[in-house]
Amino acid sequence: MVLTFSVPDRYAYVLLVGMGTSWMTLWQASLTGRYRNKAKISYPQAYAEKAEAEKSPDAMKFNCVQRAHQNTLEFIPKVLFTLLVGGLKYPTMAASFGGVWLFGRVLYTLGYASGNPAKRNRGGFNHLGYLGLMLTASWSIGELVYATFSS
Asked: Is the pLDDT of residue 4 over 90?
């Protein structure tokens, strides 16, 4: 079975959010490197030890930035899949939800980078963007499956 599809006119918005996600992770990686150097945490150590973080605000900030970056990387495959799939049928909606997720992740990272983990919740609304992406992609897939069986 061959499935052919055309990319909708506004799919460029979807790609813009996808590219923005790549730029955001590059920014997070550079923050992580900067905070790693400032805290003097050498490679391959992924995080500062608990005692180190309790003693040094720089080590605590490094742990927070590292965790923000790692948590974002954990979400990226799911977010990009739902963004790209949902955008095939509903590009403006998918790009909007993706933009909410992306902006929320930036605020999440900035809050976490303060060294106070509770401040990460400033970007907690990113989960609403992700939920919107999940629903948009699920609906799009449902429509594709329905069209396959009804033709």
From this structure: no
